[in-house]
Structures are given as structure tokens and as C-alpha cells.
Amino acid sequence: MEECKKRIVLTGFMGVGKSTVARHLSYITKNKKIDLDDFIEQKEKRRIPEIIETDGLDIFRQVETKRLKQILAETDASVISLGGGAWTTAENREIIKSCKCVSVWLESTFDHCWRNIRFSKRTRPLVKNKKSAKKLFEERKNHYCLADWHFVINPGHNSFEVAKQIAQEIFLAEIN
Ligand code: S3P
């Protein structure tokens, strides 16, 4: 596949599979990838749950914006996966747009995300219980739908196939 000239940013609710799709996308397109949450943890030398629980969500969001800017300014990664809340900050959306990134919303059902959240080993401080997670899921849709592209991930999907589809439809469309 032709090397991409633009950057692609993956967003979507927790548990939808952004990091996995990003990994495949990076492999398929031979472009470097960065996961914003991993980058934050590496730079801040703390885990995300610790930052949120100790410093609070507002500070975490500020750190998220600072590190997103840093990724875009200082790295050559073309595939960027965001944490589920990063796209909900208007400033982040502006930064992403101004850097000519193509934003992609990976959408799935709440049940699909919830299953992944429950079976994941990761601690997600924003998920207190199923009811509050569902509420957040519904609220977030209003933000996610502002992304340039929208990919629906069906239950039983194969994330490699999803990445292949994104690579074909978006990278080729954006390159040409
Ligand atoms: C968050 C999602 C998490 C992480 C943090 C906040 C959110 O990332 O950034 O816990 O606000 O939805 P994942 O979407 O990778 O779980």
C-alpha cells in the first residue's frame, strides 16, 4: 500500500478497539502509530488511573491536550489512537483538524464496548458501573459524530478486516 501523507486519528468509546485497529492499520499501511494514552503514561511516568484519581479529571484533560499537541508537533506517527474522552474536548478537535488529520469514529453498540471493558485487565476510572457507562456512551455520540469518517464495527468483527477497510477507503481516498 502507498505510504500515507496524512495522519489518521481514531476515536470512539472505551472498549471499541481503537488501539487494536490502530496497530493493524499501522502494520497494513506501514506507518508509525502512537496511542495517546500510552504516550501520556510514558511522558508523565504515571498510569492514567493514577493521574485521574490523584489530580482529577480536569487536570487529566489538560495533560491529554498538551500531549496530543506534542504528538502532532514532535512525532511522525501517522496513525494516532485517542483515549475515548480526548475527542470530546473541543480544543482537541480543533488541534486535530488544524493539523490536517483525518478523524475516524469507530462506532459499535454499547453491549460490544461493555463486554470488552468488563473482560479487559485495564482500569478505567470513568467506568463506575454499567448504568453510568451507558449514560456516558449516549452523551459521547454527539461528539464522536463530528469526526470526518464513521466506521461501524459489527459484533463478531475482525479488527484486522476493519483496519484493512479503513486503509483502503480512507488512506486511498485521502491520498488521491
Ligand atoms: C477515557 C478513556 C480511556 C482513558 C481515560 C479516559 C474516557 O481510554 O483515556 O481513562 O474519558 O473515555 P480508552 O478509550 O482507551 O479506554
Strand and helix layout:
Elements: E1 7-11, H1 18-29, E2 33-35, H2 36-44, H3 48-55, H4 57-74, E3 79-81, H5 90-98, E4 101-107, H6 110-119, H7 130-144, E5 149-152, H8 159-175
Parallel strand pairs: 1-3, 1-4, 2-3, 4-5
The structure holds shikimate-3-phosphate.
- The dominant shape is globular
Bound ligands, named by name, code or SMILES: shikimate-3-phosphate
Q: Please give the order of strands in the largest beta sheet.
A: 2-3-1-4-5
**Low-confidence runs (pLDDT<50, min 5 residues)?**
none
Helical content class: 55-70%
Order of helices and strands: EHEHHHEHEHHEH
Mean pLDDT: 92
SSE-based structural type:
alpha/beta
User: Span from first to last CA?
Assistant: 13 Å
Per DSSP, what share of the residues sits in E-state strands of 2 or more residues? 5-15%
Major β-sheet profile: 5 strands, parallel
The number of helical segments is 8
- How many strand units? 5
* Gyration radius, rounded: 15 Å
Describe the structure concisely:
With 176 residues, the protein is an alpha/beta fold. 56% of the residues lie in helices and 12% in strands. The protein contains eight helices and five strands.
